[in-house]
Amino acid sequence: MAVILEAFPKMSRNLLVKTGYNSAIYNFKYKYQGEERDLTTTTADTSTSRAAVLQLSDQACHWHPETSNLIITSKCTINVPFFLFGEKGLAAAEGGVIGVALMWMMPDSNQRGVVSIGELTQKTESPCEISGEIAFAPKQLRGTLIIQTVLYLKEAGSPVGIERYQAQQPGTILGVLDETRVIIDGNGSLFPIHEVSAPNEPLWWVRCDWDDPLEDTFVDDNFCIYLNTAHKDYSSLNVNEGLKNSSLLMEILCASLQILIMKVLNDDVARDATIQGSGIVEGSISSMVNYFLHTFKVSYDQNNPEALAIDIRKAMMKMV
Fold this sequence. Notes:
By secondary structure, the protein is α+β, with helices and mostly antiparallel strands. The chain has helices at about 15-20, 245-265, 270-275, 285-295, 305-320; strands spanning about 20-30, 35-40, 40-45, 50-55, 70-80, 95-105, 110-120, 130-135, 145-155, 175-185, 195, 205-210, 225-230.
């Protein structure tokens, strides 16, 4: 097995502490009907990861990675950037420039990218606050999004003495300051929801139009809730206020989820695979049902739909 040894100093834990680095704070938003709307985040289980793990959710129930964009803004602070330069730092004191970037990757779709968000020199004032933004188009996100705040050499400057043993090639990664994982699949917007204007139709309805729940993707082409803006009671939904402030909207989602679960699990072919999570395609309708059943410990008995109804409502109450 080959061992690669770095021939230049990189960011160490001690140096990170000396700089007084404050980890990046992320905010997530998307555009809906021409307006930017905020997404909320909850901290997911981090037992298998040293990085922060975030789960996105949309209280207005409009955001979905297949149909919506995602805008991520970050803000971090380096309180004493001076220590990054000189003989005990990462770049030359004279003319050395260290860049700060957001590096992102999605292993499930083999995508990656980097966005430069700032630069530092020995003369940078303290503290230094650095902000940046990454934008993703609809259908671009899948699986888990990994975001790292990194330092890289932008300009080597004029090294002297042992500074000559520091990295000299522009673009060299000097260290990772922090890492955050964002879970995209799962409960972003719990359901694909569309608003329509249909004067002679009910306040809401559900369309189930899949062929194989084990393979067909959980998107609005296969499953969708429709909210009728032309109905006299539409204003009572308080859609823009989110689930916490709309018992009626909550009830619609619970009833829709029950329809979804019962329709999938009443399918003799799909039932066992969906419950066990075996042989189902990631991001499929069955994977969504499996996620909900196991994450929120919802029981299913084909002969006891009232128990399912109660479990769903208890689970949804915990989510908001």
